[in-house]
Amino acid sequence: MTILIRGGTVVNADRVFRADVLCDGDKIIAVAENLAAPAGATVIDAGGQYVMPGGIDTHTHMNLPFMGTVTQDDFYTGTAAGLAGGTTTIMDFVIPAPQQNLIEAYHQWRGWAQKAAADYTFHVAITWWDDSVHRDMGTLVREHGVNSFKHFMAYKNAIMADDETLVKSFRRSLELGAIPTVHAENGELVYQLQQDLLKQGLTGPSSHPLSRPPAVEAEAANRAIAIANVLNTPVYIVHVSCAESLEAITRARAHGQRVYGEALAGHLVIDDSVYQSPDLEFAAGHVMSPPFRSKQHQTALWQGLQGGNLHTTATDHCTFCAAQKAAGKDDFTKIPNGCGGVEDRMSVVWDAGVNAGLLTPSEFVKVTSTNAAQIFNMYPRKGVIAAGADADVVVWDPEGSRTISARTQHARGGFNVFEGRTVRGIPSATVAAGKVVFQNGTLMAVEGAGRHIDRPAFKAASAR
Ligand SMILES: NC(=O)NCCC(=O)O
Ligand SMILES: [Zn+2]
Ligand SMILES: [Zn+2]
After folding, report:
1. Residues 303-312: what's their mean pLDDT?
2. 133 lies in which domain range?
3. Peptide bond connecting 290 to the previous residue in cis, omega within 30 degrees of 0
4. Are 83 and 450 in contact (CB under 8 A)?
5. Amidohydrolase-related domain location, by residue (predicted)?
6. Domain CATH code at residue 102
């Protein structure tokens, strides 16, 4: 398929310029003014609109078995929803059960992802440690295109990585040229605070944020950063939600440490008042970890994105329906943690960031696509509008608007944390791997069209 996107303004992370964009097969082949349409080409008129690299959501959980249940969105429905919102690549997580062989888990997730409508790639979680994990990390990096490993510092008695695992895995990641990433919350503290709250009879969702205050997150962020500093590894902190974690990142970066931070669209615009709702289904629908915080923390996160101490935006898309959330109706610790957003991130960040004057269009591209591609070694295949890059392109209508609702979303779960929010700035067309997959409100996602994106190590793997 040949596609000419004509008359738009290309927005890359480094500059904004008038150009047409010609795609052939799954690649962009030319970016220049006044390109002629080849015979048979599909022409998209982008007059007055922006033409940007497809969004990369660095943090999703499709088809995730978690807390005794499985997320509502699988790799097809979740990636299709992303395409409707301008996200053309997701970075999902292989999360082996404790003692599960890493390679077996990797193939399990690859099997589930066969359905994906958009490109995908995997971080692999290190949830336990022995010699086979050390060995299999090498195999994943050398043979399976994995260059990032995830560590849950929370979820005690489940997938939590202790300090021994963190140290050994960070060291192994360095050896392999992979980047360690962390969910930074002190799992022991969370567990003890949860038990205290339950003993006091505080069993509802309003206890969820009380069991995970900012200091719990900051302790883990500081610990991960300290371990990375001693071992001389980079580290990427997922879903940074509070000022204290951001301060830890900022301080480390000021001392020359290579620390990266991710902000979630939800944490940027939703505050913790949601947990006080008398509608317990609504409050439980917002239970995710780390929890939504006060407005002061939202302001700090925006400053982090503006100042370059936070680098990516993601969603942690992890959808559970009301019936699943009801597993915790008598005990908030049993509410499956997770919220959606893959369909909404680009518009939410544009509306609350660019329209509010907090981000320029180029900064928007940086934090929704380019930085992710660079940090996780997919650049310049992804993250830029340039000849040779993948034909993942969003035609962005800065004046188009929509009101977000679970009633009209493509994602499953029947709930949306952005419910009722009207956003200005929406995709008028999404091109993924050289195919028009969304145009003027119509989704044309194809099950199975997504591809696994191999991400090479950051330096040649040793012969070990
Ligand atoms: N974030 C969340 O609450 N659920 C998904 C798993 C995780 O990322 O911690
Ligand atoms: Zn997490
Ligand atoms: Zn997550």
Report:
1. 98
2. 54-380
3. yes
4. no
5. 50-437
6. 3.20.20.140
Q: How far is the CA of 391 from the centre of ligand 2 (A)?
A: 30
The CA 241 to ligand 3 mean position distance, Å, reads 13
Atom of ligand 1 nearest to the CA of 337: 3
Query: Beta strands 442-443 and 69-70: pairing type?
Result: unpaired
Assigned domain for 39 exists: no
**Average model confidence (pLDDT) across the chain:** 98
The answer to whether position 163 is within a domain reads: yes
Q: What is the ipTM of this complex?
A: 0.99
When divided into structural domains, the chain yields a total of 1
pLDDT tens column, 217-227: 999 999 999 99
For ligand 1, which residues put their CB under 6 angstroms from it?
61, 183, 288-289, 316, 318, 337-338
- If you average pLDDT over residues 319-347, what whole number do you get? 98
Per-residue burial over 354-382, b if 16 or more Cβ lie within 10 Å, else e, is beeebbebbbbbbbbbbbbbbbbbbbbbb
Asked whether residue 391 is domain-assigned, the answer is no
150-205 pLDDT, tens per residue?
Answer: 999 999 999 999 999 999 999 999 999 999 999 999 999 999 999 999 999 999 99
Amino acid at 222: N
Residue 453 lies in a domain: no
Give residue 41 CA to ligand 2 midpoint distance, Å. Answer: 43
Phi, psi of 110 (to 5 degrees): -60, -35
